[in-house]
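User: Second chain of the day. Same drill as before.
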Amino acid sequence: MPMATAPQDEYRALELLSRTPYGRVAVSMRALPFVTVARHIVVDGRVVLRLHGGFGYAQACDGSVVAYGADNLADREEGDESVWTVQFVGMARRYVPGPADLEAFGRAPVAADSTPFVPEYLCIEPQFITMHHLEGVPARRPAHSA
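Assistant: Same format as last time:
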C-alpha cells in the first residue's frame, strides 16, 4: 500500500482533513479492535480529537497507537464526483484544548446515546499518512422514495 511520504502530500492530506469535521478513530481495547466517531480539528500539523468521555474511549486511546480516517463521502455537494479519503496512524495523547481550539471545534453535541455529552480530547501527530482520490463517483441516490 503506497504511503504519502512527500511533505506536499502530507500537507494536502491535512488540508483535506480540515475540510470535514468528523472521522473515525480505531484502537485496540482489551485485545479487541474498536472504531468510533470523533470530531477533529487540525492544529499545527497535529490532529486534535473530541470524543465523548462517557464511552471510555479517550482513556483507552491515551498512550496508544491509533488509526484515524476521514473522508468526504457524506459532505459532497450536488454534482461533486470527487471522493477522497485520508488515513494515518500515530500516538494518541490526552489533550487540554485552549480557547482557540474550543472555538474551532464549535458547539459540542448535547447527548451521546441518550446521556449528556462530556467532551474529552486527544492529540495525534500523524505518521504514515495515506490519501486516496476517486473521480467520477456519482452521488448516492436513495433506493426508495418516501
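The CA atoms of residues 82 and 135 lie 5 Å apart.

User: Great, on to the next one.
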